[in-house]
Amino acid sequence: MASQKKLKKIYGDDLLWSGKKCICGLPISFTRYILTNTVLYTRVGLLSIKEDEIELYKIVDKVMEFPFGQRIVGCGTIKLTSKDSDTPQKILKAVKKPREVKKVLDDAVRVQRDKYMIRGRDMMGAASHFHNADDIDDIDDNNDG
What we know:
Elements: H1 4-11, E1 15-20, E2 31-36, E3 39-44, E4 50-55, E5 59-65, H2 68-71, E6 75-82, E7 89-96, H3 98-115, H4 133-142
Antiparallel strand pairs: 1-2, 2-3, 3-4, 5-6, 6-7
């Protein structure tokens, strides 16, 4: 089991949260979620490890689910939708204290979006290449003919 100290060594000091997928309320699976200031990682495996990442500013929607079996042991599932080409949907299944995790995730996403000056409308179409409203207006003027 990876300790917080070991995870900080691997992912840096900007580690915000880490947790495991729970089975019957116990973190005994080989799926670990790691949240840093900029990226959400999913590590799966014991001997061979597969790691997937999603940059936080690309997350566009979050949904929480509390199936009965998870809810009675204090767990829940967080489903993320993103504009990431490799990972359009990420599921953090059966995590402990899901509301607290979602709040930490919300805050980190907000910070990253503010850093890059990205808003929801910026994640659609050609406008996603620009970071302020003046550039978007220039596109509209050029397309008028």
